[in-house]
Amino acid sequence: MAGIDKIDKLDSLRLEDMDVEVLKQRLLSAIGDKNRVLFEEEVDDRYKSDVLGRRKGTVWALVRTVSAMEVSKVLRFAWENNISVTPRGAGTNLVGSTVPLKGGIVLDVSEMNHILELDKETFTATVEPGVTLQDFQEYVEGKGFFYPPDPGEKTATIGGNISTNAGGMRAVKYGVTRDYVMGLEVVLADGRVMTVGSKNIKDSSGLALKHLLIGSEGTLGVITKCILKIMPKPEASISVLVPFADLHTGMEAVWHIINENTNPTAIEFVERKIIKLGEEFLGLQFPYPQAAAYIILTFDGHPSEIEADVKRIGQLARKKGALDFLLLEDKETAADVWKIRGVLVKAVEAVSEQEPVDIVVPINKTAAFISFVHELEKKSGMQMVSFGHAGDGNVHLCVVRGERSQKEWERELKENMEQVYGKAYELGGLTSGEHGIGISKQHYFLKETNSINIQIMNAIKNALDSKHILNDGKVYIFQKAIQ
Ligand SMILES: Cc1cc2nc3c(=O)[nH]c(=O)nc-3n(C[C@H](O)[C@H](O)[C@H](O)COP(=O)(O)OP(=O)(O)OC[C@H]3O[C@@H](n4cnc5c(N)ncnc54)[C@H](O)[C@@H]3O)c2cc1C
């Protein structure tokens, strides 16, 4: 990482050297509600980590804000006193991005959870950042509208989804969270409030600041209001299960399916060996157990269009080696298939600790990447279960710890992941398709990304947060520990 300055400004922070009691009183008076400010040992352990809970930080204070003004007061207080701040939504990230690495304040915005407006005339909705994806999807669908981004974890917040540019299964047709963010209100590290974007569809007006903030994992500002694009709800939707004798044949068929111009909403791939874990975990049965791999497709839109598209894809899939083409018309079977698909990470975790990987490669390289992983699995003896979004090249690997000691696990994981990330970049891929970098992917991200890109990212950080108050040491922010 030659050429990158070591930035670790909060190393100089020594809370014990200050009058902590005075600081506590100042923070409490900024919020005005004692129940929403907790200190040190009063703070529950879950605020020290992410959903996996593997790495823990320390917390001086947890503040649960209910307005942008409170967020601004907390950040101004932190800025003036050189205190690190970790923004937090629902804490469902898988990459350690909510671990308070430098102690300080955890700023929880999950109670800012009001839907403020549904503007039918501009097809937009305005929400606070703590609204959960589930509540938002249910709300807009209840009004006859549709919010296409559909990442798997529905308890995540909209603010968290925007901060990680969350993806999900519908990306192949509808795009990702970024494509549905029209505008944001953001509190900067020094407490200033900024709005970016608007309800306008087009924007050629200066630098796209909104896009810098989307996916910035809480390193540039705290999102306090979100204007989101919504769409008319599709009239119908149907899923199809396509079994294959091997994953490679299935993955090859995906290109032909996309090329057929039928515009599927989701194209997922999954191997039989991981489905088995899902079946055992939920006590449910997946259809066609004799297959080695499956492609699951969804189509939405007008019923007559769907019918014609499904017919064409059925014929094509059989020509390309599918063992069958199962229309999931029965609601219960369709629900079971999606339940099993949705629970795969938890099913692996029930058996062993695992490292979640969400590499993305160009869609014509997915099969080559998975073949590489299979070979490495054989060579290394480390189990790597793969599934994911075949339509957009986003491959999820669950790298399974098994019976390894902590030392063996850390060493073997790093050795194998160096190879996996190296291969992904060789194929034109990237470290993360949707989960973000946080701290757990940081080593690979910094290693594989051009040094000039990292320098520019750090220059942007310094422009917006020169004291490194927000989420310091994560994602692209170079620190001493990463060499
Ligand atoms: C079972 C499971 C399935 C998942 N499936 C998917 C999936 O399909 N696709 C996908 O993309 N992800 C998935 N995830 C990951 C996770 O749900 C997403 O990353 C989600 O976007 C995180 O939202 P959150 O509210 O939990 O954010 P948090 O975990 O609280 O925070 C995530 C990051 O955003 C920052 N942040 C949060 N809120 C704000 C804010 N208001 N302003 C500024 N920064 C903020 C935090 O500092 C942190 O860096 C899954 C997770 C689990 C556990």
Which characteristics define this entry?
483 residues; alpha+beta; Uridine Diphospho-n-acetylenolpyruvylglucosamine Reductase, domain 2; Uridine Diphospho-n-acetylenolpyruvylglucosamine Reductase, domain 3; Alpha-Beta Plaits; 4 domains; seven-stranded antiparallel β-sheet; five-stranded antiparallel β-sheet; 15 helices; disordered N terminus; binds flavin-adenine dinucleotide
The rounded Rg comes to: 23 Å
Percent of sequence in beta strands: 15-25%
CATH class of the largest domain: Alpha Beta
Each distinct ligand: flavin-adenine dinucleotide
Given the structure, what is the number of helices?
15
CATH architecture of the largest domain: 2-Layer Sandwich
| Largest sheet properties | 7 strands, antiparallel
Instruction: Report the strand count.
Output: 18
Catalogue the unreliable spans.
Answer: 1-14
Give, in spatial order, the strands making up the sheet with the most strands: 15-12-14-13-17-18-16
Which bin fits the share of residues in helices? 25-40%
> How far apart are the termini?
7 Å
The CATH superfamily of the largest domain bears the name Uridine Diphospho-n-acetylenolpyruvylglucosamine Reductase, domain 2
Assign an overall shape: globular
Can you give the mean pLDDT?
92
Find the CATH topology of the largest domain: Uridine Diphospho-n-acetylenolpyruvylglucosamine Reductase, domain 2
Total number of distinct structural domains: 4
Structural class: alpha+beta
